[in-house]
Amino acid sequence: MNPEPTPRPVALVTGGSAGLGRDLVLALVGVGWTVVTDARRPGPLADLSGLLGTDSAQVVAVAGDVTDAAHRGGLLAAVERLGRLDLLVHNASTLGPTPLPPLTGVSMDDLQTVWRTNVGGPLVLTAALLPHLVASRGVLLSISSDAAVAHYPGWGLYGASKAALDHVTLTYGAENPEIAAYAVDPGDMRTAMHQAAFPGEDISDRPLPATVVPQLLALLRHRPPSGRYRAADLGAEVS
Question: Which of 7, 53, 130, 180 is the most exposed place for a label (fewest CB within 10 A)?
Fold first, then answer.
């Protein structure tokens, strides 16, 4: 008798239509994963399917905002239809108001917008998907920032939200030893969000987000202890 084929691992990557999220989705599909992903606008998700060509069947695209409960329900339903979840990546995030203001210029509305997207959405989405991650002994991965641990003028609101995301992510790991939990600082990248932080400046010297993907794939392969990592260090850390 021929053995049953090994089922494809399943990932959910938020914010998968652009930047690091898009490149990670493409890479995961390329190495045999099925990926559920989302974005606030459906157009870029359709463009993603076009880039995948014949592999587009391995991507389940769900347009919507991670802060919306109905949208999170749609992501959960997509995972349940696939029957498993091996990797949850919190990549979607917002800078908040730009140009980046000092903390004295941050309003309560700004705080709520950034916190709901960068912390609240990931917190409750993880809670909803946690039984699936635990069942597969999967990986929880949150994309962090050096602003979570360093202090730059104008980056206080965003940095505080990323510090909170790190804490939430690694606490989930401490509370659920069956999973591995990582907060990864990818470093500066040439993305639309990074450009928004530096309006009018030339950021062409920053590396493309695709250069970070091999480190993230290495993290998944080697599965070091749960913790906070810099992508630039992962080659040494996980070898």
Answer: 53
DSSP state of 231: G
- Retrieve residue 202's tokens: 């030339």
pLDDT of 237: 56
Confidence of residue 228 (pLDDT cuts 50, 70, 90): very high
What's the pLDDT tens digit per position in 97-145?
Answer: 999 999 999 999 999 999 999 999 999 999 999 999 999 999 999 999 9
48 half-sphere exposure, CB direction, 13 A CA radius: 32
Q: Please determine, for residue 230, whether its predicted confidence score (pLDDT) is greater than 60.
A: yes
Three-state DSSP state, 203: coil
Written as one string, the DSSP assignment of 9-43 is PEEEESSTTSHHHHHHHHHHHHTT-EEEEEESSHH
For residues 187 and 47, give the distance between their C-alpha atoms in angstroms, rounded to a whole number. Answer: 26
Question: Domain 10-238 belongs to what topology?
Answer: Rossmann fold (3.40.50)
Q: Which amino acid is at 70?
A: A
Q: Is the peptide bond before 99 cis (omega within 30 degrees of 0)?
A: yes
Residues assigned a catalytic role: 158
